[in-house]
Amino acid sequence: MNAFGMLSLLQKAMLVAPDKQNVGTTDRIFSSAAGILLGYTGIRNFKRGGFALLLPAGYLLIRGTRGYCQFYNMAGFSTIPNSEPFEFNKSLTIHRNRIEVYNFWRRLENLPLIMKHIKNVEKVTEGKYYWEAEFNNRTFKWNAEVIEDMPNERISWTTTDASDIRNTGTVEFYDAPRNKGTVMRVTMVYTPERTRVGKMIARFLDPFFSQMIKDDLKRFKHMMESDDITADKSKKIKQEKYKEKF
To answer: For 86-243, CATH number?
Structure first.
């Protein structure tokens, strides 16, 4: 067997089925980082007893790579979210009038312009939309409908037929104090179903995902205030142009 074949077998041996994993994303990152640090220290001080660090270093690296801990398994413990709803809340002030900001969000087809994980939104009929979103490099599709629409004040939507994840969202708009723009409050909730795929999605809905949405809203604020895009423009612009700025 050549080196490539041996490497392939090793990679397969390292894999753990998603429903068997019990080490969450943040835990895996810290475990891998600690393994690398211990391994580096052990090699640097090999002749002075550093070799003793190589075994725990290897264990931590394997633990981080596989997402599985035998000790967790024995204790019935897990740091993976149990498909609990992920709720994101954020308020920000945008120096544009409330009508413009509302009009942008009322056209849900605009969301892929600002949300990295939302790849496509298409209007099917009045108030009903087809969505495509990406989690952990996998694309998921669902249909959603607008369940509340108060012009220039509030818009809400929810999924209607998602099998692995449900999504609801509400965006509220208020006049900022002293007429200095619009205060926008965004609430988004993702609820993974207790399916195998749903559990995989749940592991992606972590603080890093929350930060990504915050960055998306920061980009939206920049776009609106710099007049790169306004709510009344109907033509779409390439999302990649704005990703490069942040």
So the answer is: 3.30.530.20
